[in-house]
Amino acid sequence: MRKRIIDWIFTLQSQRGILGEKERRLYTYAYGLLLNKIAIYAIIAIVGTITGNWIGMFSFLLPFTILRQYAGGIHLEKPMNCIIFSGFLVFGCGQYLAVASDIGKILCALWVAAILLIFVLAPIDTKGKKLDKTAKKIYGRRARGVLVIEVMIAICFWVCGFIVVTKGIAIAHIILMVSLITGKANFF
């Protein structure tokens, strides 16, 4: 389905003379990234509507997806398993963000542990994508930079009293920490 959509978009643009055949590889990759971003925002809209917690979903999924693309972690082998698992994970986090009202000591301790472990472990290789030394250095630097920015944003929102945004970012970091640990241990 995804490949058909990408091919359709490329064919449409090449028929109009916007793209040539030699640009196919680059643009099919770019359209794949675009479709992934659209899927992320669709998930935010759907789960945000179901849970009634738009801000919580946005504050969880946006930092999670941005940091995860540099940090790595586990990847399930079948795409459908990944979609189902991600759906349950996102829905569960959305429910937690909608119900719990404050950042407790346990969540705060887990968040600090997550920040430290992400800082140390990122990036993690996957079965499908092994990183060489240079790529690890680049992705690690980017992951740490994004992590620092996200933590600063979370602290600013915490100080301003927007606890749900801080909780969303903290939960994203905790889930990513678990993903990095399982990816490092090669459980999946």
Describe the fold and architecture.
By secondary structure, the protein is mostly helical. It has 2 domains: 1-45; 52-184, no CATH class. Helices cover 79% and strands 0% of the residues. It is globular, with a radius of gyration of 18 Å.
Distance between the termini: 25 Å
Order of helices and strands: HHHHHHH
Determine the strand fraction and express it as a percent band: under 5%
Radius of gyration: 18 Å
- The mean pLDDT is 82
Note the quaternary state here. Answer: single chain
Biggest beta-sheet profile: none
What count of helical segments does DSSP give?
A: 7
Structural class: mainly alpha
What low-confidence regions span 5 or more consecutive residues with pLDDT below 50?
Answer: none
Number of strands: 0
Shape: globular
Amount of helix: over 70%
User: How many structurally independent domains?
Assistant: 2
Protein name: Accessory gene regulator protein
Keywords: Cell membrane, Hydrolase, Membrane, Protease, Quorum sensing, Transmembrane, Transmembrane helix
GO molecular function: peptidase activity
